[in-house]
Specification:
The structure holds two protein chains of two kinds. Chain A is mainly alpha-helical. Chain A contains nine helices and no strands. A six-stranded mixed beta sheet of chain B has the order 6-7-8-3-9-10, with helices on both faces. In chain B, strands 2-1-4-5 form a four-stranded antiparallel beta sheet, with helices on one face. The chains are: A mainly alpha, B alpha/beta. Chains A and B meet through helix 6 and helix 7 of A and helix 2, strand 6 and helix 3 of B.
Chain lengths: 218, 240
Amino acid sequence: MFDFAQIVPYIPFILNGIKVTLQVTLLSVVLGFIWGSILALIKISNIRILKWLAVAYTSVFRGTPLILQLTFIYFATPQIFGYNISKFEAAVLTFTLNSGAYISETIRAGILAVDKGQWEAAKALGVPYRQMMIDIILPQALKNILPALVNETIALLKESALVSTIGLADIMQNANIVKGTIFRYFEPYLIAGALYYVMVMLLTWLAHGLERRLRRSD
Amino acid sequence: MIKIQNVSKSFGSLDVLHDISTEIGRGDVVAIIGPSGSGKSTLLRCINLLETPTKGSIFIDGDEITAPKADVMKIRQKIGMVFQHFYLFPHMTVLDNLTYAPVKVKGVSKEAAEAKARDLLARVGLSDKADVFPARLSGGQKQRVAIARSLAMEPEIMLFDEPTSALDPEMVKEVLEVMKGLADSGMTMAIVTHEMNFAREVADRICFLDGGRLVEEAPPAEFFTSPRSERAKQFLEKML
C-alpha cells in the first residue's frame, strides 16, 4: 500500500518548496504587521475620511475569500495596470494586504487595552503623540497581543499553501508536481504535511521564548 | 504664577466645574479638598490641560495656556503630575522611567539624565531600586518613583492628584514625607488630597470645592478651626 522507496528521489524537490513557503510567509508577516500597524493607528486617529477608508478596507479583505483575492491580484493586475506581476510578487502582495487587515484589528484592540493612565502619564511629561505611541503605548500593546500575532503568523504559514493555485513553487505545489509525476497521493502529501507541521511547531517554540523575554518586566 | 480665571468645565450635559477663579503664587502649596465628585481632580487636570476647560482661561507666568495656539507639549514639560495610580511605565526599569522624558523630550544627554535620576532616587530613598521593574515595587515605592519621574523634568509646578489614596495605610507616610520635603524646598504645588492633617501641616492655603464651585479659600489655620461656609463645616465634621 505504501511505497516510500519511490518517493525518496523526489524528497529534495519537495524540500525545495520550504524556501518559497518561508519567504512568502515571513515577508507577508513583516509587511502585513507594518501595514496593519498603520491601519490600526489610522483607526484610532481622528481623521474621519482615512478612518472610514481603513474600516472599509478591513471589511472587504475580511469579507472575501483569500483564494479569490490571490487570483484577482495575480490575473487582474496585468489587465488593469499593464504590469506583468510575478507569482511571487502576487503572493506576497495578497498575503500582506490580507493579513494587514486582520492584524490591524488585533493591534487596535491591543492599543485600546493599554491603561488610559499610561497615555495621561506620557502626556503629562510632555511626550509628543508619535513618541508616546512608539515608546510607551505600542510596546505594552504588543506584549498583550503577542499570542494573537503568533496565531496570525501560523495561520498565514498554512494559508500560504494557496499560492500553489497560481503555480508558485512552494511546498504544496511541489508536492502536487511529484504527485503528477509518480501518480501517488499519499506519500508526497504526507511529507508536505509533516513539513508544515514541523515549521508550525518551530514557530510556536520561538514565540514562547519571545514571550518569556517580554514578560521579564512582570 | 498660575492664574485660573472663570474656569468652567462640563462633560456633555454634566457640569463639573462652575466659574472657578483663583491664583497660585510661586512657591505656594495649595491643598484642594472637598467631597468626592466635587470637581477637585478635574480642576487639577485643567492646569496641565489633560482636560480642556469649556469656558474661562488659565495663565501660567502670564501666558495663556488655554489659548487655541498654545504649545501644549511645552507647557506640560513645565508641570509635573503625580497620579493616584502612579502610572509608571511597566516595560521600563525605574531608571529608564526617570530618564525617558528628559532624554527623549527635552534632549538632555543620557549621562546627565542618569546622574540626575540617581540623585532624585537618592532623594526619595530608592537608590537601590534603579534597575528593577515597577512591578517589583510596593505602592509607596511606586509613588515615590512617580514623584521622582516628574521631578526629573525639572518642572516649575507639581500637581498631585490624590497621591496617597491608593496606598496601604503604612505606606502613606513615606510618600507624604517626600512631598513635605518638596514643599520645604520651595516647589509650587497643588495637591488634591483627603489627608486633612497633611493639608493642615504643609499647605499655605486650602481650596474647598463642593458641587463644582470653589466654596471657600483660606489658610489652613483659619479653615480648619473656623470655616465660614456651612458646607465646609459639615464636611470637616465628617472628616475630622
